[in-house]
Design a protein that fits this description.
One of its GO terms (biological process) is homophilic cell adhesion via plasma membrane adhesion molecules. The protein is mainly beta. It contains three helices and 44 strands.
Length: 732
């Protein structure tokens, strides 16, 4: 019997490196262990439960076939089934493998070295022998050695762990656990664990077993049993939660520490089960990038910046895997997440969107305060404080004629006139405006886009045009024909710059004005006008070389009653032909055949084209005398077809319209119209002529083929004739 002070103390030292499955395991067992068997020695790193196979335990040649070791297939623990004697064998070298039925190795071999710890159980070399007769009453109520139980043990419960025995009779056993735990003792003194243990909840238990009589009185002092819960890798690393993102300034150098992860594992401290390593899961390196944005030290959990650049305002989620057991097979892991925000710094100088402004023209009499131009600037920084700008005129304004106006948080600046301009002093000003950042700039200084050039052209003051009258009036009968001249608008100074005239608010379209001469004509018949009505339009005049300078005057038309007059008889105009392209030919249009009032002083007839713009574009009408007019083509080319040209004939207050029928045709060299000629009867068509030509060529080809074939056959016949039969040619 081993003394009580020689309790079982075995240490399981698993020298396992990450991802190295064949590292040898080492365990010590005291010889002549007097505790309960089987004794659990060490947890084997078996593969996951999904791997099917048989656990095979083998040893050295010194170990008997029925050895004292076995492997619990449910818990994966190596156990010893009996006491060992160091003097019999000091150590055992075992190998554990997982094999299939046909002997194929699925896992292993895993070497295990078991050393038997020496106990003082042998007599010394010099001894004396004496015989003493001692009568001993056996005391079975002896202290128990500590018991090591694996946590989360997968065995049927209740599970036997120890045995106590009181040598007397009528004994009842009572068990108390400090702290309370899943332990029990039956009437025979067998101690059981009734459920799985959790080392993280409680690492040790102190059990007290009392032997009592039927009255509940203790026979003796209770036995104490210490139960040690062996650690198992049943807890994954846990990452602490972060309340706010980690902020890193942009352009921070590589190697800058972003954060340091500190995952915690509830398994036994200092054991492989709590040895944590880290692996960066995301972000992954971008395709084509030279390096990673972040680097991770897998042992310390330190996250630093990599070589890849980061942009301001980027929100990046770092995902890091924390694994225990050094990341070896069978390790547990969890994912840590760290939010990283890249903060902005003032590393961008503001720049104008346009560095060269188109020339701005200002009149010489422009008032101070006039807006000259608005310049826009941008700043690529994101922080509002870094986007504040300051503007100044750097060059081109020695006299202080111009000034800048902007809001403090605005990105645009207004260039305004501060003093009166003088064309004689300076006809132009070239201003250079510069923009700067209000906050201190980090990195390179402002570039060429930080300045903008504005050219201001001073316009010499020119007075607007002036007409000979401030307003105009004209009285016309309601029967006045289209084309009739009402009056002429003229400038007050005949030698001034040429003017261009136009009509405004001619709502009825009754009037038209010639742009250059200023003649106002009736554009179309005055339908709807009533005698006594007035019609007002606005005449606008502009300088030809200065369209911006203009003046206007009102034109009032008073409508009169149409006078009674006889209707003259107009001579009919026969159909005429005119050539295109234009020739020196035209159509003569005559007035009335008999006019008894013409000699009475009523005046001549006037001729005008109808109001149709197309007719006025294509045709030209020229008066020959008081009774005839000449109609010609106005364009060089007019479409060849029949044209109906309306001509308005007026006499006093009466008007008539003639419809002149003119056929425009293409002309020959003599200036005569070319007529389309049809096919002459009896003459061949184009198709028949082509057929005759093709047939003739085919007949000639056949004839030539026949001749060449005949010559070829004759030559072949001469070559086949014997040489002796060829007659000699006489020499001349």
């Amino acid at each position: 019997m081993v003394p009580a002070w020689l309790l079982l103390l075995f240490l399981s030292v698993a020298q396992v490196f990450a991802k190295v499955q064949s590292a040898e395991l080492y365990v010590e067992v005291p010889e002549n262990y007097g505790g309960n068997f089987p004794l659990y020695l060490i947890k084997l790193p078996l593969p996951p439960e999904e791997t099917e196979g048989e656990i095979v335990l083998s040893g050295t040649h010194d170990m008997a076939a029925e050895g004292p070791f076995a492997v619990d297939p449910e818990s994966g623990f190596l156990l010893v089934t009996r006491a060992l004697d160091r003097e019999e064998q000091a150590e055992y070298r075992l190998k554990v493998t997982l094999e299939t039925e046909d002997g194929r190795v699925l896992w292993g071999p895993q070497p295990v070295l078991v050393r038997v710890k020496d106990e003082n159980d042998q007599a010394s070399g010099h001894q004396a022998t004496a015989t003493i007769d001692v009568s001993i009453v056996e005391n079975t109520w002896v202290p128990l050695d500590p018991i090591h139980l694996a946590e989360n043990l997968k065995v049927p419960y209740p599970h036997h762990i120890a045995q106590v025995h009181w040598s007397g009779r009528d004994v009842r056993y009572h068990l108390e656990s400090q702290p309370p735990g899943p332990f029990d003792v039956d009437a025979e003194g067998t101690l059981h664990v009734t459920g799985e243990l959790d080392r993280e909840a409680q690492a040790e238990y102190l059990l007290q077993v009392q032997a009592q009589n039927t009255r509940g009185e203790d026979y003796t002092e209770p036995l104490e049993l210490r139960v040690v819960v062996a650690d198992e890798n049943d807890n994954a690393p846990v990452c602490p939660l972060r309340d706010s993102p980690v902020s890193i300034p942009e352009l921070s150098p590589p190697g800058t520490e972003v954060t340091r992860l500190s995952a915690e594992d509830m398994d036994a401290p200092g054991s492989p089960n709590s040895h944590i390593v880290y692996q960066l899961l995301s972000p992954e390196p971008e395709e084509g990038a030279d390096g990673r944005a972040f680097e991770l030290d897998f042992t310390s959990g330190s996250v630093t910046l990599g070589d890849a650049p980061l942009r301001a305002a980027q929100n990046i989620l770092l995902r890091v895997m924390a694994a225990d057991r050094g990341g070896a097979e069978g390790s547990l892991s969890s994912t840590c997440e760290v939010a990283v925000t890249i903060t902005d710094i003032n590393d961008h100088a503001p720049e104008f969107t346009v560095s060269q402004i188109e020339p701005v023209s200002l009149p010489e009499d422009a008032e101070p305060g006039t807006l000259v131009a608005t310049l826009m600037a941008t700043d690529a920084d994101l922080e509002p404080a870094f986007r504040l700008m300051d503007f100044a005129i750097e060059a081109g304004d020695v006299e202080g004629t111009f000034g800048l106006d902007w809001e403090p948080d605005s990105s645009h600046v207004e260039l305004r006139l501060l003093k009166n301009l003088s064309y004689e002093a300076a006809s132009s000003h070239k201003l250079v405006v510069v923009v700067r950042s209000v906050a201190e700039l980090v990195g390179p200084g402002p570039g060429p886009g930080a300045t903008a050039t504005v050219t201001v052209l001073v316009e010499k003051l020119v007075p607007p045009p002036k007409l000979d009258q401030e307003s105009y009036e004209a009285s016309v009968p309601v029967s006045t024909p289209a084309g009739s001249l009402l009056l002429t608008i003229q400038p007050s100074d005949p030698i001034s710059s040429p003017l261009r005239f136009s009509l405004v608010n001619d709502s009825e379209g009754w009037l038209c004005i010639k742009e250059v001469s200023g003649e106002v004509h009736i554009a179309r018949p005055l339908q709807g006008a009533q005698p006594g009505d007035m019609y007002t339009v606005l005449v606008e005049a502009r300088y030809e070389d200065e369209p911006t300078l203009s003046t206007s005057a009102t034109l009032v038309i008073r409508f009169l009653k149409a006078p009674s007059a006889w209707a003259p008889t107009l001579n009919p105009v026969p159909t005429r032909h005119l050539c295109t392209p234009r020739q020196d030919h035209g159509v003569v249009i005559s007035g009335p055949g008999e006019d008894p009032d013409l000699a009475g002083g009523h005046g001549p007839y006037s001729f005008a084209l109808g109001p149709n713009p197309t007719v006025r574009r294509d045709w030209h009408l020229q008066a020959l005398n008081g009774s005839h007019a000449y109609l010609t083509l106005a364009l060089h080319w007019v479409e060849p077809r029949e044209h109906i040209v309306p001509v308005v004939v007026s006499h006093d207050a009466q008007t008539w319209q003639l419809l002149i029928r003119v056929i425009v045709c293409r002309c020959n060299m003599e200036g005569q119209c070319m007529r389309k000629v049809g096919r002459m009867k009896g003459m061949p068509t184009k198709l028949s002529a082509v057929g005759i030509l093709v047939g003739t060529l085919m007949a000639i080809g056949i004839f030539l083929i026949f001749i060449f074939t005949h010559l070829t056959l004759a030559r072949k016949k001469d070559l086949d004739q014997p040489v002796e039969s060829v007659p000699l040619k006489a020499a001349v």
